[in-house]
Design a protein that fits this description.
With 472 residues, this protein is of the alpha+beta class. It has 3 domains: 156 residues, PAS domain (Beta-Lactamase, 2-Layer Sandwich); 85 residues, Helix Hairpins; 149 residues, 2-Layer Sandwich (Heat Shock Protein 90), CATH 3.30.565. Helix content is 56%, strand content 18%. The chain has 11 helices and 12 strands. Strands 2-1-5-4-3 form a 5-stranded antiparallel sheet. Strands 7-9-10-12-11 form a 5-stranded mixed sheet. A two-stranded antiparallel ribbon has the order 6-8. Helix 6 runs parallel beside helix 7, helix 7 runs antiparallel to helix 8 and helix 10 packs antiparallel against helix 11. It is rod-shaped. The structure holds adenosine-5'-triphosphate (ATP) and magnesium ion. The site of adenosine-5'-triphosphate (ATP) has 21 residues, from helix 10 and helix 11.
């Protein structure tokens, strides 16, 4: 039952049925029309021929009847009639047979008025049509004419010809046409089957492919021969989807691995330190101090990491709703600089801040986080006695903020990746950061409808540029 259902509902069956129905309908109509018009043409031509001919004969018979020359009537009828195929009969005004080309058979007929055309002709009207033979059972084309002289009815003349010969020929033609029709249908079925299969096979393949994708087989690819029709384009899109899913899957795995790694390190540090403290390190005040400091640092790092991860998760999922309000950028940036001031003083790093009056719509706490992350990076990578320069200006409808440092710069092969989660350029300098700062900054700026870019030269420094839409 199930199998049948699938079979009948399949695109292949539906296409094939549609093709066949259309072909059958079209070719049957055509064959029917050809046969009908051929039949009609033949009958009509014969009828006209016979009518003309029997009108002429009627004239000759009328002459003979007028002279009351019955032998001549009989002679005329005999001469033009032919056994079986052409029958000519002359009736008197009462509908009795006067002369016939087939006397042997006609003697058996009693009532001639019942024979099609005779009564009509005796009412002075012409009649014609197809009827069964008077005594035989074959179809015959007949024509009946009144014999009239000087408005006086002298009788009627009825001619009929057998259609047997024609019907035999017509049957041959009919079977030939039907045969051709059958043959055409078979050929068309084969072609339709191929066409339907050509269309349904890729759909079937793509369906299986989509099922495999759904089951988690990312990264597989469909074979595409040519990129021409919609199905090929669909396959192309499926391939792209598969690729994208594979890379997302890869990212997810990498993310999880990074998260667990980054969480494990501070936790195991704390555990080791606590164990050392319990085993007696606490008795030495200098050592215990350092150990407690260590525990505090690691816990702080852990807490920051967890906060960053939560932030990033919310931003990625689009859960974080921005508390947008009208803000001026210069006080916000001044706040960020104040926050890192002591750290910079310690490292003897100075700042130059030059911000025009730029008003934007945004979430001030989130944007502060962006500036803090960028400043944190700048400080981390700046040598002592260097400058960090922050400028802000208007460019068309955009507010542009640039944060430049004179640090070591970013290597060309790191440059395209620094905004990725957990990407840290210099792997040897462990403990500096986990590589989430820029990823968070980028997400926040993008949620604001802006963009963030970097340009950097190794040995000279890096410049991060933020573009945001101005409020007015
Ligand atoms: N101003 C800069 N100068 C040189 N390199 C930089 C600068 N800013 C970022 N980078 C490079 O980009 C990487 C990614 O920066 P990001 O802020 O995302 O991570 P992080 O600073 O290492 O860690 P986190 O910010 O999470 O503490 C850094 O590891 C560093 O290699
Ligand atoms: Mg950072």
């Amino acid at each position: 039952m199930n199998w049948l259902q699938i079979k009948w509902n399949s695109i292949h069956t539906k296409l094939l049925t549609t093709y066949l129905l259309l072909i059958t309908l079209a070719s049957s109509l055509m064959a029917g029309y050809i046969l009908w018009s051929f039949y009609d043409y033949f009958i009509e031509t014969r009828r006209v021929e016979m009518q003309n001919w029997s009108r002429a004969l009627t004239e000759s018979v009328a002459d003979a009847l007028e002279e009351n020359n019955r032998e001549r009537v009989q002679l005329l009828v005999q001469r033009y009639g032919a056994v079986e195929t052409i029958t000519i009969r002359v009736f008197n005004t009462k509908g009795q047979l006067e002369a016939t080309s087939n006397p042997k058979q006609d003697s058996k007929v009693k009532n001639w008025m019942e024979v099609p055309g005779v009564r009509v002709a005796l009412e002075k009207q012409e009649a014609h049509g197809v009827a069964k033979g008077v005594l035989s059972n074959d179809d015959r084309l007949f024509s009946a004419q009144p014999i009239v002289r000087k408005s006086k009815l002298l009788g009627a003349l009825r001619t009929s010809i057998s259609l047997q010969q024609f019907q035999r020929q017509f049957a041959i033609i009919k079977w030939t046409v039907l045969g051709t029709l059958g043959f055409t249908l078979i050929v068309c079925t084969l072609i339709s089957e191929r066409l339907a299969r050509n269309l349904s096979r890729p759909i079937q393949t793509m369906k299986n492919f989509a099922i495999r994708l759904g089951n988690g087989h990312f990264g597989e690819k469909l074979q595409i021969r040519k990129k021409s029709n919609e199905l090929d384009q669909l396959a192309l899109e499926l391939n792209r989807m598969s690729e994208r899913l594979a890379s997302l899957d890869q990212e997810r795995r990498a993310f999880l691995a990074n998260v667990s790694h980054e969480l494990r390190t501070p936790i195991s540090n704390v555990l080791v330190t606590v164990e050392a403290l319990r085993n007696g390190a606490a008795t030495d005040p200098t050592v215990s101090d350092r150990f407690f400091q260590n525990v505090e640092n690691e816990t702080k790092r852990l807490s920051r990491l967890i906060n960053d991860l939560l932030d990033l998760g919310r931003l990625e999922a689009g859960v974080t709703l921005l508390e947008k309000q009208s803000i001026l950028l210069s006080p916000l940036i001044a706040r960020a600089v104040r926050t890192v001031e002591t750290r910079m003083q310690k490292l003897q790093i100075s700042t130059q801040v030059n911000i025009a009056e730029l008003q934007i719509q945004g979430d001030s706490e989130r944007l502060l986080q962006v500036f803090l992350n960028l400043l944190d990076n700048a400080i981390k990578h700046s040598p002592p006695n260097s400058h960090i320069c922050i400028t802000g200006y208007r460019e068309g409808k955009q507010a542009v903020v640039k944060i430049s440092d004179q640090g070591e710069g970013i290597k060309d092969n790191d440059l395209p990746h620094i905004f990725e989660q957990f990407y840290t350029g210099d792997r040897s300098r462990k403990g500096q950061g986990v590589g989430l700062g820029l990823a968070i900054a980028k997400r926040i700026i993008e949620t604001h409808g802006g963009s963030i870019n970097v340009s950097s030269k190794v040995g000279t420094g890096s410049t991060f540029t933020i573009n945001l839409l101005l409020e007015k």
